[in-house]
């Protein structure tokens, strides 16, 4: 992608991001905890990254507005309709993933 001009690259990245949001919207059965376990990010992370990107550019974007964009509706509504309580298996997998992540961070700091 280095051969593309910056505008084209940005447009492609934006299109891919919008596609990711559509994909997540089409797969509401994929819970945020599942995403955190497998990929170490979730819909809330995407919202925070949008807010951070806005701040870097001097634009105003609050977290709730970003979440509504990412979720396609107000977060409370999405949570009520689609979010399930994490199972004990999901909670254990998340804790294990966090422990592995912590171990990697400690290794990189000590190495």
TrEMBL record:
Source organism superkingdom: Bacteria
Family annotation (SUPFAM superfamilies): SMc04008-like
Record-annotated SMc04008-like domain positions: 30-95
Protein name (database record): DUF1244 domain-containing protein
Biological source species: Halomonas icarae
Record-linked InterPro entries: SMc04008-like_domain, SMc04008-like_sf
Region annotation (Disordered) ranges: 89-111
Biased composition (Basic and acidic residues): 102-111
Biased composition (Low complexity): 90-99
